[in-house]
Task: structure prediction
Amino acid sequence: MDKFKPQILIVEDDELIRNIFQQSLENWGYPVDTAENGQDALDKIRRKNYHIVITDLNMPIMDGMTLLNRIKSEWPYIETIVVTGFATIESAIDALKMGAFDFILKPVNFDQVKITVKKCHHKIQAEAENTHLKKINARLKELNEMKDKFLSITNHEIRTPLTIIKGYIEILDGLINSSEPEIREIFQILKSTIQELTQTVERMHTLTRANRGDWIAEPHNVDVVQVAQKVYDEMHRLFEHRSIQLEISLPHHPLYILGSFHALQIILRELLQNALKFTQDGGKVNLKIYETHKQVAICVQDNGIGIPYEKQDAIFSLFYEVQDVVYHKSSKNEFMGGGMGIGLSLVKEFVTNMKGKIVVDSDPGIGSTFVVYLPKVRQETSHKEVKPDEPSQVTFSS
Result:
């Protein structure tokens, strides 16, 4: 607030009062100009940008009311404060009705002047900040619409030719003589590359639907334990390939949330994929499902490279990648492998849609822990009783 000082114009025909106003306001740190009458003030306003005009009402050539009317007609953003004697207080009230910020009675109490000018200063500052925020919000809305349009068009424009390519590759695959190993190897590379591109397009399509809010038609009860087991079965060989120990800890009984089986799969896959990407070969990743009083928790912990503190607030932003894009790698399964910066954004979107939250605890060089909390659905049927000597969780690893 102190950095911005509004430019003030004093309009007063009495030179002594005019000078006292100027000296007082300048002593308080405000830049001040003066004018002898309304016409003089208009000439100065046309040449310079003022924020506040403090004007006497009774002046020769052009009085304060006429000046106020001209200012509000031509420069409505300028705040005005009128100075009047008690005998003309009705004129001051009329000035307020015309849009004046406030009035000051004569004889002038300069403590009151300071308070009034400061209030006017705060109003101007607040309006400027509000205007700035509106511009930022409008720009953000525009960028968000551009992003949605980009995702939608890209998804459509890539998906159609990709489907055609996949179809012809499958036809040619059946025609290639399997005794030609070099050609078979080329086709396997082509099929693998197309599969990766297909997965990328599907993720973009999923993100587009999530942003539109139509990612799920009807939420239903989903067993988090079952989904976690399924995702582990799908992905554990990727960890084995890089000698990373993937340990999973699950409760003996189902834990239900209200949401989408598909969305929950994506949450688990993306969190594990993220841990795989940023954990060195030979490292360790833990996936644990447990319950609190009202929530089901999904915890993915790794002993990888961690996330720099200054980047932790940005990791859920769309298209954001922690590593420098200069060192981008096409394979998302190798250490520091590349991506489009979609995964964690999808996780955040789905968790929010299911009325959950996600927290991150990460130390550079030590590792990261992501915990998703989702509202738990109470089940009427009782869980299988666990004997006192049985652990409440079953743990196994790849």
Observations:
- DSSP finds nine helices and 13 strands in the chain.
- Residues 102 and 116 are 7 Å apart (CA to CA).
- The radius of gyration is 34 Å.
- The longest helix spans residues 110-175.
